[in-house]
Amino acid sequence: MARPARHAPIDYRAAHNLTNGLLERATCPPGETEVLLKDAEKPGLRLRITHAGKHWSFEARIKGALLKRSLGAWPAIGLSDAREEAHRLRGMAERGIDPRDAEREQAATKAAAKAAATAKALTVGEVWPLYLENGRPKRRDAWKPRYRADLEAMAAPGGEKKKRGQGVTRPGPLYPLLALPLGEVNEDTLKSWYDREAVAGKHQAARALMMFRGFLRWCAARPEYRSLTDRDAGKAAAIVENLPSNTRRTDALEAAQVPGWWAGVEQLSNRTASAYLRALLLTGARREELAALTWANVDFQWRKLTIADKVETTRTIPLSPYLAHMLATLPRVGPYVFASTGKAGRITDTRNSHAKALQSAAIEGLTIHGLRRSFLLLGEAAGAPAGAIAQVMGHKPSATAEGYRPRSIDALRPFLEQIEGHILSLAGVQFDAQAAPGALRVVA
Predict the structure, then answer these.
(1) pLDDT tens-digit readout, 296-342
(2) For residue 371, which of 162, 280, 291, 422 is within the disulfide window of CB 3.0 to 4.6 Å?
(3) How many helical (H) and strand (E) elements, i.e. helices and strands, does the chain have?
(4) Quick one: 305 exposed, middle or buried, by C-beta within 10 A (0-12, 13-18, 19+)?
(5) In angstroms, what CA-CA distances link 155 with 125, 172, 176, 189, 212?
(6) For the domain that residue 59 is a member of, what is the CATH number?
(7) Which residues form the domain of 184?
(8) How far apart are the first and last CA of the chain?
(9) Are residues 303 and 425 in the same domain?
(10) pLDDT under 70 in the chain at which residues?
(11) Of 64, 94, 117, which closes a domain?
């Protein structure tokens, strides 16, 4: 094909051996909105020329379907680059490959790789707040406040001024794990962490491990974290064999210890703590269940208490005579029966008060939870049926003992009064059920 003269008009209907000079000369004729300058060397390559500028494009048919691609503006994209891209696209078209599909697949592969890299870098600390927010136990609307507070304390960074004593708090046992990528939490990393934390306290480290196992179970149940989570990392033999023995506590008041314990508790200067500790013994309730008791859930008219329950949401038990008189002597300051001036507005920790009472009575090793066991044993000694005791305490119903079946409040009342009478008798308390509130006394 003869080279056209430099200043000859350009025939836009024909294909041309494109040159840089031709590209520079090409303009959109007056009266036209655009023209196409086609390349004879690379079929499908053309330069679209408008009054606004010049842009490369490529056209080809793939399995009968028309493919149109924009390759960029000239002169930013030069002739050689445009031809190279056109050659690549033509080759794909001739093999029946749609470059758009290939690019989508490549983009998906890159996105997957990026997501995998992001997920691999995801740390425990980034997921932990989501666990606190959404990882509530089965059949529960939310964490129990005390357990939620323990979870937060276990992962706290420390450095806060101590509420008691001098200095600042140390980081919680789980805090070092927050910096680890979730995908790197395995048997080795957990064993190394546990061995370090156990130096400060084996039982605290073991409890932190149990909490972290719950976190791993939650992560393993979530599709977005499942591939990153080694659910059984905390159950490895190398860790479990070093856990402290989990001997079940059996501390409880013996009958002969009841008078001394009662006298020590009754003489406490903190009247709210005194009433709270005695109420624990008289009801067998768990400490948090009773601490959260509100006046709205104390029915003096029909003599009932509605308290929070570990198995069910709440449970209702009879309000026994002595307990009713004792509660009536407490001041009503706020919604809680066992009120406190602390942040929670209610009693939260009576271990110091209990320790004073135990010291006064020369009793060792009795925990707050031991009062719950004491209620069970003293209830049996009083002759109350096992099913009635279990119902008052909020134990999960069982049909193995006496064909257990729930009793109504009125049917349960005689048994709880029977237990209360037995405890008061052991304590040496003479109680007149008809006496006005405050007329309670201990007889030596």
Answers:
(1) 999 999 999 999 876 667 899 999 999 999 999 999 989 999 999 88
(2) 280
(3) 17, 10
(4) buried
(5) 9, 5, 8, 17, 10
(6) 3.30.160.390
(7) 124-240
(8) 128
(9) yes
(10) 1-7, 112-120, 138-140, 163-165, 246-249, 310-312, 396-404, 433-444
(11) 117
